[in-house]
Amino acid sequence: MDFQQVFGKPPETQASAPGRVNLLGEHTDYNDGFVLPTAIPQGTTVQLGFSSDSQHHFYSENLNEQVSISDINHQPSGFASYIFGCIELLQKAGYTIPSLFVYVKSSVPMGSGLSSSAALEVATLRALRQLLNLPIDDVEIAQFAQQAEIQYAGVQCGIMDQMASSLADTEHILFLDTRTLERRVMPLPEKAEILVIDSGVPRTLAGSGYNQRRAECEEAARSLGVKALRDITDVNVTKTLPEPLQRRARHVVTENNRVLEVLQGVTSERFGELMNASHASLRDDYEVSVPALDKLVEILQKTEGVFGARLTGAGFGGASVALVRSGESESIATHVLEQYNQAGYNGRILVPSLGLSDAA
Ligand code: ADP
Ligand code: MG
């Protein structure tokens, strides 16, 4: 079912936005630290048209689901909340938004940590900007998108996902200082591309583990007399802390320093070493890895053509990200998955998307 079939007329305009993967800087965002995401080839496309009744009508091709809401109605739930949030936040900012037909289709896997939610928000806002000639820039789009997710979808997220979707592309990485929002768009390391493989292990303990780590970081920062662990740059300072706070703080401090090193300009080989060091730190100091992710990352790191690999996202399951030689991600993935799945796991390639069209 395309737009015309669902809404009875063709769309007026459309816009797309990519998903993202974080290459370096894990568990640093809630410590006011630094992150380094890039866009993935898969994206979300949003098509818009004018609805003639006083209701908005949203359709998701992926869910094969349609939702109709009037402005004065209560807040919608599910996928409609992300779209409605974008619309209502623009209205609250003073823009007049007419009743709309909204058609969504996406090649970003949903709920796999590649930020299909940010892609949906950013694509929606880009399409609205285009349709209505709104004077909002890409950073404002990221800010509206983040607020839509927090206030309407009820997800307490930072701004990394939305900034990456709005400002990065597959050729560029986004350095972001999560405290000041200072940012820099930089080219991807030379002759390299991204490979993301899902471990097949669901992130069951992610919620509780995440909250515990956050609390430990806050306690460590309090003990050290700083606002956030981002304010510590010398790793020796963490030695005064009791365990496990010492190891938690050491991860955050060394991880921030790894991201800052990339900012100075590094080769693909060095970038890969920093990713490997990040994984070791997440495994040993931060203790958010699981045996499956360790196995997957270990196989990746031993494979010819891989510059470096680590777990990506909060951990406790989920996906790995690797920096690999240009043009080799598919053959490397096949080789790695053969070994990984032989060990009894059920991994699958998320990026590049094999067989699926990237254009959404
Ligand atoms: P992630 O952002 O890592 O993919 P989230 O749980 O943050 O995972 O976001 C997934 C949710 O975003 C989905 O459950 C759905 O509500 C919404 N969503 C994202 N993309 C689409 C889409 N193409 N169609 C409908 N809903 C979508
Ligand atoms: Mg999300």
UniProtKB/TrEMBL annotation:
GO BP terms: namely:
galactose metabolic process
Q: Which PROSITE patterns match?
A: GHMP_KINASES_ATP
Cellular component annotations (GO), alphabetically ordered = cytosol
Q: Kindly list the GO molecular function terms attached to this UniProt entry.
A: ATP binding; galactokinase activity; metal ion binding
Arranged from A to Z, the UniProt key words for this protein are: ATP-binding, Carbohydrate metabolism, Cytoplasm, Galactose metabolism, Kinase, Magnesium, Metal-binding, Nucleotide-binding, Transferase
Q: Name all Galactokinase N-terminal domain ranges.
A: 2-47
Q: Which NCBIfam families match?
A: gal_kin
Protein name according to UniProt = Galactokinase
Origin species, per record, is Nostoc flagelliforme CCNUN1
